[in-house]
Amino acid sequence: MSQGTPLNEAQALDWLRQLEDPGQRYYAAWWLGRMRSDHPEAAPLLIQALADRSPGPAPASGIDEPNPIARNAARALGKLADSQAVDPLLEALESSDDGLREAAARSLGQLGALKARRPILRRLEPGPLVAGAPRPGSSRLTEPCEALLEALGALGWQEEDGSTIMDREPLLAVVRSYGDHDRPLIRSAAYRSLLQLTREDAWGEQLVRLLLHSDLQVRRAALLDLGVTGWRPAGVAIAQTLAENSLKLIALRGLVENSPARNQASPSPSPEEVELLAAMDDLL
Amino acid sequence: MPSMSPDPRQAQALMDAVQAAQTADDLTDAVERLSACPHPMAIPCLIQVLGFNNPGAAVAAVDGLVAIGSAAVPAILANLDEVNYGARAWSVRALAGIGDLRGLPLLERALAQDIGPSVRRAAARGMGGLHPHGFTARQRQELAERILPQLKAACGDEEWIVRYAVAVGLEGMEHWWQPLAAQRQRLLDTLQPLADPQGEAAPVVWLRARLALDRLAAFPSATRA
């Protein structure tokens, strides 16, 4: 059983290429994603690894998820910006392993794979009481709703990809239905997605409400979700949230960088951005 | 504010409330109330709270220690917890907020060596917030010669938030350094790489560094005492 992580890209590729040591394959897949390898062999090897159903490293290593190599490969492919990964990830989205579906959905969102919108939506369509129902004997839901909702938000809404305005309302209706889910983390993912899809302030206000939730995990999730959307009216509420400054700083960075109002051509911050930077200064 | 002297009996009652707190939220509330009436009597109590592994209470305790100011520095330095990493990080944050030069060696060690980005970022910001009271121009210059290379080295930190804090620290240095034109240029030159979108990966860092450069260029001696 191998220990540690690859030293360099060549070694990572070797480790992923060999089939004897699952530990090496597991860490190699992780490493290539983490380092955003642009080696021409990286994506093809990771795509092969998506089909790996071996049990992975020995339980003593602390890795106890099913299909760990395939899941790591799916995660890595989201970071490589290689479009040949899209079809294999769409296939992984149909896997019986919900953890692999989760990783594939996130990666398809990261890749901006518009082809993924319909299959992801299909998984969510049964609604929060079916797709969002807890599995017996597990804390997991029937579908990896959080990842699916977030991926829809990341894909955004464009009409030029073959979808028309007629497709938009049914999409929003499905996502909205998860805004009533029992679990606040799922609601947070739904609001985040809706805010990205519609830019309607109401969804940002819902996320700000979750910043006051009694559970720290929920407040943390809402912070990160607001950061991803870049919804700037949340700045003051983020600064005042009861949570670690490190997370609030990440969220405020998101408001600066991810807002549609950011003028990419301007090297200097706008007055609104100066206020956000001042809030960040106070949290250092 | 430190110039006000709250009633010692009131401070004692607020400290008793801290000791009596039963839940994490109660503790945070009690420490917030104590920190709002900062009295030197409260220093040991506030330092103790830094070690409780309660972030809300620790934030409030740091605020209280910063409000008390220099009077708290000897006790913070004498009670550094070498084992409890979290407590040490909060101590660095308190010292960074106070700006007393006696805390500088600890900030320097933290910026160069601490494994926690939250500690390095506090140290970098703290170097910009020093208060060298009574220093001559020459002594301030010597202090700047000591600190500038350390912040420059931290421009290469792998964590964006530390580089962000370095930009804030460099801008802050101007306030206590009050450099002449040639020296001032060194400050701008050190900030420049952080403000370069080609060289700096995080947009928020280059925006913050650009803001620092803009401010230093717009008000060359506005902060001169």
Walk me through what this model shows:
The complex is a heterodimer of chains A (284) and B (225). Chain A is mainly alpha-helical. Chain A has 15 helices and no strands. In chain A, α10 runs parallel beside α12. The model of chain A has no long low-confidence stretch (mean pLDDT 92). With 225 residues, chain B is an all-alpha fold. Helix content of chain B is 68%, strand content 0%. In chain B, α3 (43-49) runs antiparallel to α4 (55-68), α6 packs parallel to α8 (117-128) and α10 (160-177) packs parallel to α12 (203-218). In chain B, 45% of the residues are buried. The mean pLDDT of chain B is 90. Chains A and B meet through α14 and α15 of A and α4, α8, α10 and α12 of B.
Brief digest:
The complex is a heterodimer of chains A (284) and B (225). Chain A has 284 residues and is mostly helical. Chain A is built from 15 helices and no strands.
Helicity of chain A, in percent?
55-70%
Categorize the overall geometry of chain A: globular
The Cα radius of gyration of chain A reads 20 Å
Overall outline of chain B: globular
| Uncertain residue ranges of chain B | none
The low-pLDDT segments of chain A are none
Straight-line N-to-C gap of chain A: 42 Å
- Beta-strand content bin of chain A: under 5%
Give the mean pLDDT of chain A: 92
Mean pLDDT over the full residue set of chain B = 90
Tell how many strands the DSSP assignment of chain A holds. 0
Oligomer: heterodimer
Largest sheet of chain A: none
Number of strands of chain B: 0
Number of helices of chain A: 15
Please name the two chains that share the biggest interface, counting residues whose Cβ lies under 8 Å from a Cβ on the partner chain: A-B, 19 and 26 residues
Backbone structural class of chain B: mainly alpha
Radius of gyration of chain B: 19 Å
Write down the secondary-structure element order of chain A.
HHHHHHHHHHHHHHH
Number of helices of chain B: 12
Helical amount of chain B:
55-70%
